[in-house]
Amino acid sequence: MGYTYNRLNKDDVALLMVDHQAGLLSLVRDFSPDDFKNNVLALADIARFFDIPTILTTSFEDGPNGPMVPEVKECFPDAPYFARPGQINCWDNEDFVNAVKATGKKQLLIAGVVTDVCVAFPTLSALEEGYEVFVVTDASGTFNQTTRDAAWSRMEQAGAQLMNWFSVGCELHRDWRNDIEGFGGILAKHLPHYANLMQSFSAQKA
């Protein structure tokens, strides 16, 4: 059976940032703290660059999970924000799901903490309802690589596509000529080695 390559469409995608909370971040062990924070903020910058509707949610933030990481909240000051009182699967929260449906988008980018619960559960739920789901693997974290790989396998077998923030940005951008400096600036900000390429490009232009 042939495979249909449905690309991410900047005009038909929404981003769900699930449970990037101060307490839960201490559980992330499959990425270094600095790398993980950089990945999450890179995804946020991409969403802002392409003006992608973004929805934020937290789980039991008055408990040990803690508040959403301030930098994430600051990236999306006007985004719908749902502090779930107890539901572990954010798709069980009616207000959150209504906000997702209100975007009118058929594609969902999902990232969160932890990968095997806060990302996997809504991913499986959204797939069941007919959404096309793209899991941003390096902006999602969990206890260890074994747990992560099992969660990735579970979601992929259900039909989710696994991507990283860099490939998300490139697939949305399509063509460098759309905005060389703008998109290149995001890559340079979050990939130090890419900054060298941008400096060379700038020097050549000068």
UniProtKB/TrEMBL annotation:
Lineage start:
Bacteria, Pseudomonadati, Pseudomonadota, Gammaproteobacteria, Pseudomonadales
UniProt keyword annotations, A-Z? Hydrolase
Q: Establish whether keyword Hydrolase is in the entry.
A: yes
The family database entries (InterPro entries) matched by this protein are listed as:
Hydrolase_YcaC-like, Isochorismatase-like_dom, Isochorismatase-like_sf, YcaC
Q: Which organism is it from?
A: Marinobacter santoriniensis NKSG1
Extract the NCBIfam families matched here. C_hydro_YcaC
What residues does the Isochorismatase-like domain cover?
14-164
Q: What is the recorded name of this protein?
A: Isochorismatase hydrolase
SUPFAM superfamilies, per the entry: Isochorismatase-like hydrolases
**Pfam families for the chain:** Isochorismatase
Q: Name one GO molecular function term.
A: hydrolase activity
> From what superkingdom does this record's organism come?
Bacteria
